[in-house]
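ok new one. same drill as before - structure tokens go in, u give me an amino acid for every spot. 263 of them this time. try not to just spam alanines like last time pls lmao
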């Protein structure tokens, strides 16, 4: 792909509609707001740089983050609005994400190589097929590409059954983007550098296994913390952890020895 090609279709798209008023508004917002577009691109890049989606354990967490990022961008663009009946007292963000999911399904790729998209799959079968409006993200596409199988029937007809999933070839989506610039929202997508080391579940698990409720299971997390603060405060912390049952007598003695060791 020629460098700088991404996004040109989104900027130069025709006045035609994609078939989705929501996506049309989203596309226009990204084409006209440099601030929104820059923040969206930076957030997508930060996500893949911090969490490596090639790790199966992280894939759903990383994909979920992309859904949240796009929902935030759609809200900023005015495509999504605060759920009815809510006011300045706030609202449940999960309701807003469900609204975003009602607009389109999200299929994201960050591989250095263009690949076919897995549309649906189920245990032992290919799933329901290409039935929902979908946005496709890839560093090898000219932007965020929208397709509605009920509107873009020529694209939907190119899906195929791989035996355990309904698939759609990358070349077909790329050709759809070229033929329908109104279906392309300008956005430069990141390539996965493969260096992300964060585990999106670690902070959750550590908060779940807190020393107050799970003094035995929390020992691993407590022991991993580096020594901080002055000697007196650290000793007080160790005593509190021992008294709470988070540290055994042996672990307490070993921690005190490490803390008070000179040199």
């Amino acid at each position: 792909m020629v460098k700088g090609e991404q996004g040109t279709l989104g900027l130069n798209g025709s006045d035609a509609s994609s078939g989705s008023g929501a996506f049309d508004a989203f596309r226009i917002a990204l084409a006209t707001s440099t601030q929104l577009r820059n923040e969206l691109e930076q957030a997508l890049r930060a996500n893949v740089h911090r969490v490596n989606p090639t790790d199966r354990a992280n894939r759903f967490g990383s994909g979920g983050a992309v859904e949240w990022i796009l929902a935030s961008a759609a809200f900023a663009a005015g495509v999504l609005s605060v759920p009815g009946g809510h006011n300045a007292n706030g609202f449940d963000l999960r309701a807003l994400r469900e609204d975003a999911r009602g607009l389109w399904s999200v299929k994201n790729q960050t591989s250095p190589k263009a690949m076919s998209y897995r549309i649906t799959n189920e245990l032992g079968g290919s799933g329901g097929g290409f039935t929902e409006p979908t946005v496709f993200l890839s560093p090898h596409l000219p932007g965020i590409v929208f397709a509605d199988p009920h509107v873009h029937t020529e694209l939907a007809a190119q899906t195929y059954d791989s035996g355990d999933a309904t698939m759609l070839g990358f070349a077909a989506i790329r050709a759809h983007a070229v033929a329908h610039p109104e279906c392309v929202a300008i956005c430069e997508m990141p390539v996965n550098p493969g260096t992300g080391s964060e585990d999106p579940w670690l902070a959750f698990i550590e908060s779940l296994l807190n020393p107050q409720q799970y003094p035995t299971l929390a020992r691993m997390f407590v022991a991993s913390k580096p020594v901080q603060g002055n000697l007196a405060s650290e000793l007080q912390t160790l005593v509190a952890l021992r008294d709470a049952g988070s540290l055994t007598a042996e672990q307490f003695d070993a921690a005190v020895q490490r803390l008070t060791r000179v040199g």
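The CA atoms of residues 230 and 259 lie 10 Å apart. and btw The chain has eleven helices and seven strands.
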